[in-house]
Design goal:
The chain is an alpha/beta fold and 503 residues long. The protein contains 20 helices and twelve strands. Strands 9-6-3-2-1-12-11-10 form an eight-stranded parallel β-sheet. Strands 5-4-7-8 form a four-stranded antiparallel β-sheet, with no helix packed on it. Helix 5 crosses helix 6 and helix 12 packs across helix 13. The longest helix is centred in the middle third of the chain and has 27 residues.
Length: 503
């Protein structure tokens, strides 16, 4: 990635936007947020993965590495397309402006989507909306490489009551090409429903991104290194993963024990069968990266160190203690991606944690900026690379915190007294507005990118935390209320952007 002007922006997943429909979406409030970013002198909107979430509602455990999140489809947009009537979306069952109740919102939106799909299929609708139908047909053809398998996977999943594909009958779990073709025929209408939703999502997304880009806002998206076991990617490409003959994983992903956890973290994602990927020229990865780069301006790759070596844990282990580091062909992969898509890929490497010289060498060989998180700079009293005066290059992205951290105010409350004193001395403050001081440190750093979670901009505490790693529920549900993006807040951010040369 080439050097560029220092810019700044905000980390906010679209689900956290205000909306009258119980969850943020790609409707009017998303455009209003772009307008706020422009007024605030910002040039970045960073998001979490935009994919179709599965168990636990985590954007990092999705049913597909390609499919968009249907929950982000705007009901108001469906009304504009004459796919739903006003009364159908009038009474959202969730009125909480600050939290998402997925257990209620998902079935409510599914009912709306299914009503819209029934209307879409009628001859009267298709006759009166020929341009939309033409666009839909073209979308399905252009994206068939991933869309057909995803739609069939979801249709089969619905036919099995939503359980993991590992619990399906053998002929569904590992279908022959002939049986797969038969399934597509048997579930044609059901597959069409999921193709329809993806068409709507990507239509809405393309318009929002174009609007952001016209207002000089770049979109930074997120690409998890691993995919979910219960996903169309694994089900349809079992030869590309470390699975046995019945589809069950042989080894799974995680991270080893460290000072955060005595037993490590057992993520459970299936590991890649890298030899198979190399044999076909990394075609799946090239397709995945091409897809993401068509949707985003910059891609942040989560757990980048896994491309140099990954922690491999035998399937069935209770924790991640009994694993081992296994080398990965990261260099060969990124060379293949560059050969296919061009050099200077707009990628940010999430290089946090215990990073070896080999990982740094891989990152630097392809000129990927790394990450600096300010909270990490003050979790001990010693000098470290996360302190802004220790930054040695502009070729990095600085954050006050990430989606996995507590908000800066929440984090500061639980900080050791000696570390709190370090914060006060470093920022020359009394610590009462530590989030504001961290925003200043972030913007004032030499880093090319300065990104601040929305919660820190709004001075929110631990109640607004997005995710607590290692917990399976209660995450990803924070939202902010409509009307809170004031002119004063925009001016404060713009003044800092101007002061620190990021405007």
């Amino acid at each position: 990635m080439k050097e560029q002007k220092r810019i700044s922006g905000i980390l906010l997943h679209p689900t956290s936007l205000p909306s009258p429909y119980g969850i943020g979406d790609l409707g009017a409030e998303a455009y209003e947020f772009v307008d706020f970013l422009e007024r605030a002198g910002q040039h970045i909107w960073q998001m979490l993965p935009l994919t179709h979430t599965g168990y636990g509602d985590s954007p990092y455990q999705s049913f597909s590495a390609f499919a968009g999140q249907p929950l982000l489809i705007s009901p108001a947009h469906l009304k504009e397309l004459d796919l739903v009537q006003g009364y159908e979306i009038l009474h959202c069952p969730v009125r909480d402006d600050e939290h998402i109740d997925y257990g209620v919102i998902i079935p409510w939106k599914q009912r709306i989507f299914k009503n819209a799909y029934r209307r879409f299929l009628t001859s009267a609708y298709q006759d009166s909306h020929r341009e939309l139908i033409t666009s839909y047909t073209a979308f399905c053809a252009q994206n068939a490489g991933w869309l057909d398998d995803y739609a069939l996977f979801m249709a089969c999943k619905d036919a099995h009551g939503g359980v993991s594909w590992l619990e399906w009958e053998d002929n569904f779990r590992c279908p022959s090409p002939e049986y797969k073709a038969q399934l597509k025929e048997d579930f044609e209408k059901e597959c069409g429903f999921y193709q329809f939703l993806q068409f709507l999502f990507f239509e809405e997304w393309a318009k929002l991104k174009a609007y952001a880009n016209r207002h000089e806002i770049q979109i930074i998206g997120d690409l998890p290194i691993f995919v979910s076991m219960d996903s169309a990617d694994v089900w349809a490409n079992q030869h590309l993963f470390q699975l046995d003959s019945r589809g069950y994983p042989v080894k799974v992903a995680g991270v080893p024990p460290d000072y955060f956890s005595e037993t490590g973290q057992l993520w459970g994602n299936p590991l890649y069968h890298w030899n198979a990927h190399e044999e076909d020229g990394f075609a799946w990865w090239i397709s995945r990266m091409r897809h993401q780069l068509s949707l985003l301006d910059i891609v942040r790759i989560d757990h980048f160190r896994g491309f140099e070596a990954y922690w491999s844990v035998p399937y069935g282990e209770e924790n991640a203690v009994h694993g081992e580091w296994v080398k990965a062909p990261g260099r060969e992969l990124f060379r293949a991606v560059e050969d296919a898509l061009g050099s200077g890929l707009p990628i940010i490497a999430e290089d946090l944690g215990v990073i070896t010289p080999e990982v740094k060498a891989l990152r630097d060989e392809f000129h990927f900026p790394g990450m600096k998180v300010l909270q990490f700079a003050f979790e001990g009293t010693q000098e470290n690379d996360f302190l802004p005066h220790q930054f040695t290059t502009t070729h990095c992205a600085c954050y006050t915190g990430t989606h996995d951290n507590d908000t800066t105010l929440g984090w500061y409350e639980t900080l050791d007294p000696a570390c709190k004193e370090k914060v006060k001395r470093y920022t020359n403050s009394d610590g009462t507005k530590v989030n504001k001081e961290f925003i200043r440190l972030c913007m004032g750093s030499i880093a090319a990118y300065a990104v601040v979670p929305m919660q820190d901009v709004l001075s929110y505490g631990k109640e607004a935390r997005m995710n607590i790693p290692g917990t399976a529920s209660g995450n990803w549900n924070w939202r902010f209320k409509k009307g809170i993006l004031s002119a004063l807040l925009a001016k404060e951010l713009k003044d800092m952007a101007i002061l620190y040369g990021r405007y």
